[in-house]
Amino acid sequence: MSESGQFQQQIQQTFQQRLDEHQSQFPEKECLRIDLHCHDCNSDVTDELLGRILRFPETWLKTDELVTCLNEHRCDLVTITNHNNARSCWELMETGRDVLSGAEFTCFFKRFNTRLHVLAYGFTPAQEEILNGLRNDLPAFLTYAADHDISTILPHPLYVGAGAKGPDPVMYEHLALMFDRFEVLNGQRDVWQNLLTWEWLDSLTEERIDHWQKKHGIRSENFCRFVYDKRVTGGSDDHMGLFAGTCGTGLYVPDLEKKRKQTPLSLLALEAIQSGTMHPYGEVFIHEKLNVAFMDYLSQIALNMKEPGLLRMFLHKGSLRDKLVCLGFSNAMQELRRHRFTLFFFRSFHEALHGRRPGLISRFKVTPDFRPLIRAIDEIARARSRDRKRYMELLKTGSSRMFSCLNQIIAKRVASRAGHWEHLDRVRNKNLADLIQQLELPSHVRALFEEDPEPTLDHGSRINLSDFFDALTFPVLAWGVIAGASLLSTRVLMGQREFVNGFARSLGRHVHPRRVLWLTDTLCDDNGVSTSLSRKLSFIQERDLPIDFLVCHDRIQEAPHLKVVPPVGSFTVPGYPDHVFQVPDLLAVQALFIQGGYDRIICSTELLMGLAALFLKQSMAVPVYFFMHTDWLTFFRHTMELPPPVMDRIRRMLRAFYHQFDGIFVLNRDHRNWLTGPAIAYDGSRVYNTAHWVDERFRPLPGDRRAVFGEQISESDIVLVYAGRLSEEKGVFDLPEIMAALDRSGVTVRLVIAGTGPAENRLKALLPGALFLGWVDRFRMPALYSRTDLLVLPSRFDTFGNVILEAMSCGAAVAAYAEKGPLEIIQTRENGILAEDPAGLAEGIARFVRDETFRHTLKKNSLRRARSFSRETIFNAFLNNLGLGDTVHTDGTDSLSERVLKKETLKAAIGY
């Protein structure tokens, strides 16, 4: 198991052990079970600005449904902690029910300009009014509560509204002095945050408390009953009536059976909370509970949303960005409400969560495509009413199962509709340029659905999407809601990852490991990108570095440091029919990221995995880096005649894409200059130079030429080799021009072509004297290069040029254009030939042939230059730029920083 996998397992085990040990201190039969943190429909004013603009309550859950859920999970007593009000408690009391009054007050800590929540219990309606009046002054609020025996608890202490970087750490010194009860088990937070809260409380020694009292001039006795011995609680933080009571607090009441006959349970509970004789109970997941809760919430928005009003939205307080986000969300949800089957799905899902099955007719009238989806919903409903354990398990996996089903439906329908869509047939039968031109959308989106669209651009046209989207409306909308819920849930949990990890460092324990997930669309293909990535994977496996590759593929098998997710669909693009793009399941990628305990991402390809990387960035709040292998503008410029407006459109799309990344690795100075120049305007401090290397098998090998080239080439011939894909962007049609120039100058050479591609037949016609070897396996390439005098690379497209380094490593010289990758490797006239055009290459090659001394010097220096590309040096710099250089060395030894960290951790553990 990887270090990060062990980390996840370790914190889960450590937390469970703490729960068991703490619970064992109190006899179970003498403990009242109560969920001290749950909400219903009276939490009708959300803390979130976007919710207030759109007029969304925190939940639509009715009080009786919440009480039912609490009873189902064996709670002995009810309290409902709605935001800033106890209306539900008072309403239940009016019916004669014994209820512990409670509320979750949003208070403002002026000193740190931070809002945080405070749970309070045992107050009267009159005291509630006073507490609400004191919410803007946290110390005054807590002083009043202490003076009137109102018990307070600080919920989810590591989750406060202070931005991604979290609050000022000094604030926690104040909180330790002002609170004596802390929620260490919050059912909607991940186990890491809960455990760190508990660890922090254990670190609060008398010496530290006394020191902070003097430092801040605060007397804890004014706020706390337990100044030094903090007490811990639990609660579900449930808003949907799904998990209420699954997490909570056991309140120890000696001689409970006798006392409950004489005293209301609410008074017994309040006495136990005040005395601090209690323990948390329950199970914490990583993010599944919150994910399901958000799915249910979004479903209820779809079912209950009312028009918020355009004028009201724009007159509401908040930034213009906030209001535009609300406008977009409102329009999306209103569009969703127009589709009856979509509403049927969300209603069925919501009701299934509460044990109500879809109607019998509904289950059978849906089309076969959707039946697995309805079966999954029906299984959840049946489990809710029959098997609570099974129900909880289904909630863990339910969203991913439905998401996978929707992925398959979308992929199937896109494929079937595309096959009959006349416009796509036309695009497929032409070339990629037409497809790129179709990416422009008209400003009037409704025009996309017209029956007879008219051209509106000089170099593009509209697409009639009406028929196409008829089949995709429901699966795409439902897919978006599930993906959105998953993004929101993990973003809420992980949004303060940087702060939480800093908190762990301050404790000296449970620091999240630094580990990279490397996403790519290509790993086992026959191209330079795949080759270089495969070499990096081999090196990572050899040294057991903290990096794992992730590919989406239907045939690749998992291996150490190689993760594989199966595709939900696939497609090809015009011009590259042999390359199949595999479509990943976003939630499967996200689940793998969470389970693997990664904390940063690299992506090597712009298309599908590029989008998956950006999804992880937004959902997991982690840094994402891009490794740039391909110069797409040069590719498009040399493979098709695109007009300037279309090329500019591509550049703008690339600029928008690259600006989403926290850092970019480049293989040449040309790319660095392009990224940091006016075309892309990317921050130069976040652009990192790197390089490739070659396998050890690429070295000079003895032998004669006949074993590689056959009898057609003799030992005395000067052999020029082109190795690579035979396609226009590789510049192969410059080879006939180079050979013609050499022939005119009276130079005789033999040209060998190793490779295949769409230009092969045309090139054979233009070069009848060349030897075409076809595809040469990469394991045979060292022998080929060892018998080569000069590699010719006429490509202006290569960002590095693996073949250059491979050939030089085997003792061959290289002639290439003075652009991008070749400029990073070759010093002209010293270890290779650089030129600006075919004529210049021909001139350099002619000298190479005629001047034997020059030829031997270039070949000798080529070998020396290739050896300077050390994989250890390259990868050490790469790890440093990723922020991993101080945790691991590629020689397997601990770095100095790592040894210091271990020493500091040991000191913290023994209380030094």
TrEMBL record:
Transmembrane segments: none
A Pfam family that the UniProt record links to this protein: Glyco_transf_4
MF GO annotations: glycosyltransferase activity
Residues covered by the Glycosyltransferase subfamily 4-like N-terminal domain: 528-675
InterPro entries the UniProt entry points to: Glyco_trans_1, Glyco_trans_4-like_N, Glycosyltransferase_grp1, Pol/histidinol_Pase-like
Domain Glycosyl transferase family: 711-862
Keywords annotated in UniProt: Transferase
Protein name: Glycosyl transferase, group 1 family protein
Taxonomic lineage: Bacteria, Pseudomonadati, Thermodesulfobacteriota, Desulfobacteria, Desulfobacterales
